[in-house]
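Appendix C: a fully annotated inverse folding record. The material below is reproduced so that readers can follow the format used throughout the book. The structure is listed first as tokens, followed by the designed sequence.
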């Protein structure tokens, strides 16, 4: 997996720009191309080429992950892209977590805008405040991060990063949202250990009030 510009720290204001598709839930069969810009506590900031009506509902799909969204605002500052805010509606998992602390060893594929693009990482622990993730290089506190753990995609924010004696970097990551895949998949180029629990993140996450 390639690492991008590991020699410098990222701009913490950088956006993901992950390409996704929005499938209308109103029976119109409309499909809209969009980009995920930011994710925070059950809220998605998207960029689209078409204006979306407030209150309209869509199913967002990214790399076999899916969640249901409702548009709460749509802005078009000038000719070109629209900036859309949407809240998560799905009954599945979200960012509100039970008070648990578990040691784990889950291989992942990580994206940090401006620093890592589909790089390797390892989730080493889950606590009440989020995830402990081992990275191969430094990242700036406040940076957004996306982790593909096979059975879904975790979105969060870097809360702490420190270098270990072996050269790896230990980070603490907030758990802002989890998009689950219907079928467990292993990130490209990885081999999942047979002992990794299929429903680990689903059990750890509870629905937001």
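Designed amino acids, in order:
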């Amino acid at each position: 997996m390639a690492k991008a510009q590991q020699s410098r720290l990222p701009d913490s204001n950088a956006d993901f720009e992950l390409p996704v598709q929005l499938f209308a839930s109103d029976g119109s069969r409309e499909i809209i191309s969009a980009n995920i810009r930011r994710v925070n506590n059950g809220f998605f900031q998207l960029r689209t080429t078409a204006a979306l009506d407030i209150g309209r509902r869509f199913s967002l799909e990214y790399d076999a992950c899916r969640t249901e969204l409702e548009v709460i605002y749509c802005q078009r500052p000038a000719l070109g892209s629209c900036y859309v805010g949407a809240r998560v509606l799905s009954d599945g998992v979200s960012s509100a977590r039970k008070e648990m602390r578990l040691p784990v060893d889950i291989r992942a594929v990580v994206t940090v805008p401006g620093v890592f693009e589909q790089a390797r990482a390892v989730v080493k622990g889950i606590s009440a405040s989020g995830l402990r993730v081992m990275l191969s290089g430094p990242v700036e506190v406040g940076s957004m991060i996306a982790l593909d753990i096979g059975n879904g995609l975790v979105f969060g924010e870097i809360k702490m990063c420190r270098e270990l004696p072996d050269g790896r970097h230990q980070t603490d990551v907030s758990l802002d949202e989890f998009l689950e895949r219907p079928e467990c998949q292993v990130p490209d180029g990885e081999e999942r250990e047979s002992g990794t629990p299929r429903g680990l993140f689903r059990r750890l996450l509870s629905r937001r009030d």
